[in-house]
């Protein structure tokens, strides 16, 4: 556990390292985000300690899964740091990189770490069964199942993606710290649900619905990126000169279109490889 605990100071120190200065005045939303991330790390490390004390080190949650979760949170801390946020206020392309990394790198890393199960182990032994029973109740289970289903996660992700790229909403988020924090949350939450469905499909060898979800997401985000790339004028408020502004938007559109599409394509190929491997082993495939 010592290597994991050693990562905790990173989250405590991150708000004071932006721009290479000794200290930086952070706005309230950013401090809330860092507080939530620090709390998530503390609970995760506590849960791992309890779980591995009971089941053995590396059992229940593997070391690489724990490393993935902590790496995802560390990357998230960097993405919302003052230095990165400063770049995103002056460049649409930088803003797009921030969102793409949030949805395509941070989200799957966090899901790989199996945080819900690990946080449960952070509770006292007497509290674990009641909490598990509460989450099994239909009032929680039904909306959770809908939100983390391939269709539900895809719909939520695409709707929020489009809504937050409406010029009024995007410009407001760029100028209002609380709106910007809400924007990050609206991108991360459905991305977590989306990648949850992807990894569940891989585990259960039931790739059909998620393959469709990956295709829909890839084509929709690609089409939106193409619109940004070929738009004749900037869509969003900017301090850049017109020629630089349109180039900046075109670059941002390309980043959504090409690298984003490649990630979804690779995820689909990874699912298909697992599906075909199951077929070669002679085990029956589930119908899509």
Write a brief caption for the model.
With 288 residues, the protein is mostly helical.
Count every helix, treating DSSP H or I runs of 4 or more residues as helices: 14
Helical residue percent band:
over 70%
Overall shape: it is globular
Termini separation comes to 41 Å
Uncertain segments are 1-25, 284-288
Helix/strand/pairing category? mainly alpha
- What is the chain-wise order of helices and strands? HHHHHHHHHHHHHH
Proportion of residues in extended strands: under 5%
The Rg value, from CA coordinates, equals 20 Å
Folded structure, characterized:
There is one protein chain. 79% of the residues lie in helices and 0% in strands. The protein is built from 14 helices and no strands. Residues 1-25 and 284-288 have low confidence and may be disordered.
Keywords:
mainly alpha; 14 helices; disordered N terminus
Write the layout of secondary structure elements.
Blueprint: H1 2-5, H2 8-13, H3 28-55, H4 63-79, H5 82-90, H6 92-112, H7 115-121, H8 125-135, H9 138-147, H10 150-164, H11 167-175, H12 177-204, H13 208-230, H14 242-280
Helix pairs in contact: 3-4, 3-7, 4-6, 5-6, 6-12, 6-14, 10-12, 10-13, 11-12, 13-14
């Amino acid at each position: 556990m010592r290597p994991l605990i050693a990562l905790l100071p990173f989250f405590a120190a991150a708000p004071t390292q932006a721009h290479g200065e000794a200290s930086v005045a952070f706005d309230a939303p950013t401090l809330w985000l860092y507080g939530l991330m620090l709390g998530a790390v503390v609970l995760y490390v506590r849960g791992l300690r309890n779980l591995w004390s009971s089941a053995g080190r590396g059992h229940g949650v593997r070391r690489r899964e724990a490393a993935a979760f902590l790496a995802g949170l560390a990357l998230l801390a960097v993405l919302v740091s003052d230095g990165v946020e400063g770049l995103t206020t002056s460049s649409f392309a930088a803003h797009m990189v921030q969102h793409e990394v949030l949805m395509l790198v941070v989200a799957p890393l966090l899901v790989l770490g199996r945080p819900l199960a690990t946080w449960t182990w952070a509770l006292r032994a007497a509290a674990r069964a009641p909490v598990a029973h509460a989450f099994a109740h239909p009032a929680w289970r039904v909306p959770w199942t809908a939100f983390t289903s391939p269709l539900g996660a895809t719909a939520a992700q695409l709707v929020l993606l489009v809504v937050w790229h409406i010029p009024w909403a995007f410009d407001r988020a760029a100028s209002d710290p609380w709106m910007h924090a809400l924007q990050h949350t609206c991108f991360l939450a459905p991305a977590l649900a989306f990648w949850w469905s992807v990894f569940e499909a891989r585990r259960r060898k039931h790739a059909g619905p998620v393959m469709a979800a990956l295709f829909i997401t890839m084509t929709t985000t690609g089409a939106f990126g193409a619109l940004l790339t070929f738009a004749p004028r900037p869509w969003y408020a900017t301090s850049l000169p017109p020629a630089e502004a349109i180039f900046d938007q075109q670059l941002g559109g390309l980043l959504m279109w090409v690298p984003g599409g490649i990630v979804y394509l690779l995820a689909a190929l990874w699912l298909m490889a697992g599906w075909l491997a199951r077929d070669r082993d002679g085990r029956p495939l589930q119908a899509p």
